[in-house]
Specification:
This protein is mainly β. The chain is built from 1 helix and 6 strands, in the order ββββββα.
């Protein structure tokens, strides 16, 4: 996590994702585990390691704090 906020009875956590592989990746929200009501990525295409596009930020929104949402079953998204 690189940032976290609360507001309107929700918890928002920003998580930095860095591609450590030599291939382009496309972000797939179905691969994120935890109970999040909304998940979005700053960029859906992530470049290979070492490129200017090799990272993105995920924004994870939940009804409970981030640590608790990670432990819950994923039924909100």
């Amino acid at each position: 996590p690189v940032g976290a906020w609360t507001g309107f009875n929700h918890y928002i956590t920003a998580v930095l994702i860095v591609n450590q592989t030599p291939v382009f990746l496309q972000f797939d929200a179905t691969k994120v585990r935890g109970n999040f009501t909304h998940i979005t990525a700053q960029h859906i295409n992530i470049g290979p390691k070492g490129s200017l596009e090799d990272r993105t930020t995920l924004y994870l929104i939940s009804d409970v704090p981030f640590a608790d949402a990670l432990l819950e079953d994923s039924y909100g998204f």
